[in-house]
Amino acid sequence: MSDTISSCISCGAPMSTKFCPSCGEKKISDSDFSLAHLLEQGIDVFTHLDSKLFKSARALVFKPGLLTAEFVRGVRKPYMKPFQVFFLCNILFFFFLGGYDVFYIPAKWFFIESQYGSSIRQLAEQTAAQKNLDINALAQLYDAKVVNSSKLFVITLVPAIALFSWPFGGKQHPQYGKHVIFALYFLSFMMLVMVLYAKILIWLPFRIPPIWFNIPFLSGLVLYVRFAFNRFPDRGGLIAWLGAVSVVAGLVVSTIPYRWLISWLTLHSI
Predict the structure, then answer these.
(1) Residue ranges per structural domain of the chain
(2) What is the pLDDT, as a whole number, of residue 72?
(3) How many Cβ atoms from other residues are within 10 Å of residue 83's Cβ?
(4) CA distance 83 to 94
(5) Which listed residue, 48, 83, 108, 255, has the most CB atoms within 10 A of its CB?
(6) For 144-157, b where at least 16 C-beta lie within 10 A, e where not — what string?
(7) Percent composition of the chain: helix, strand, coil (DSSP 3-state, to 5)
(8) Over 70: is that where the pLDDT of 49 sits?
(9) Closest CA to 127 of 107, 112, 157, 104
(10) Is 234 left (phi over 0), alpha (psi -120 to 50) or beta?
(11) Which helix (H) or strand (E) holds 222?
């Protein structure tokens, strides 16, 4: 290690060690460009990411609430960041279940007014008239775009869901931002489980009614959040059960206007 004082290439602060004491930038040497060093960096990045990915996935699925509790405590090195987990699960969900109308209204519902009222159908008819398109042609354009639209804006469900866990934070966790983190992990878990659940249903040799899927799925989410509340926000008993029901109900309630909004945005973008 050299005692020669030089300036940091990034922030200009004086540095006499290998790393800048101000911003952490590393002093470059010829050995940094050797093939052995480059291979070492590649292996380190892969193994580091793999370790974090495995630990985060295991905690997300088998230890409800742990990732939120650890993040709030400041333990962040061993795990992927909340938004990293969310976007990874989001990608997996839409890659494997992009055709499932969970976060959007497919064009076929435009012709069943009882599902969402007449507003979406009226908007579709107005858009078709403005664009001089047949309603069936508009439906094809809509279906091609709505999946991508629902991917782009699904992050907006997170602060809405957080509103339903926030009242149960108590005096220990009154900060709304902590519940946003909780909602990120909860929605990540939901998308991941839906992928696994849907694949199991596909493998079954018989079809089951949707209600047979929805009831155990939502019940499972309530149970997951109930156990998550033991770690964050560290609540138990009746309060934890009420909080679990509130969060899952918040997911269902938030999804309804979200689906309508995605339809509105998609139709206006055609």
Answers:
(1) 6-30, 39-269
(2) 93
(3) 14
(4) 16
(5) 255
(6) ebbbebbbeebeeb
(7) 70, 0, 25
(8) no
(9) 107
(10) left
(11) helix 210-231
> Percent of the chain, pLDDT > 70?
83
| Closest by CA position to 153, among listed 258, 14, 229, 13 | 258
Per-residue pLDDT tens over the stretch 165-179: 999 998 899 999 999
CA atoms within 13 A on the CB side of 186: 36
Q: ∠79-150-178 over CA atoms, to 5°?
A: 35
Q: Which residue has the tokens 């019940």?
A: 219
Query: What would you report as the CA-atom Rg of the chain, rounded to the nearest whole angstrom?
Result: 24
| pTM score | 0.78
How far CA 75 is from CA of 59, 62, 69, 80, 183, in Å, comes to 13, 18, 9, 11, 18
Each residue's pLDDT tens digit, 179-202? 999 999 999 999 998 888 777 766
Beta bridge partners of 15: 6
Residue 102 CA to residue 99 CA, distance in Å, equals: 9
Structure tokens at 49: 């990411």
Helices 119-130 and 135-153: angle between axes, nearest 10 degrees: 120
Distance set, CA 189 to CA 66, 131, 228 (Å): 12, 40, 11
Q: What is the number of other CB atoms lying within 10 angstroms of the CB of residue 44?
A: 10
What token pair was written down for 174? 């009154």
Cα separation, 56 vs 43, whole angstroms: 20
Supply the pLDDT for residue 42.
62
Alpha-carbon dihedral of residues 54, 243, 179, 75, nearest 10 degrees?
-40
- The sign of the CA dihedral 195, 200, 202, 203 is positive
Distance CA 69, CA 65 (A): 6
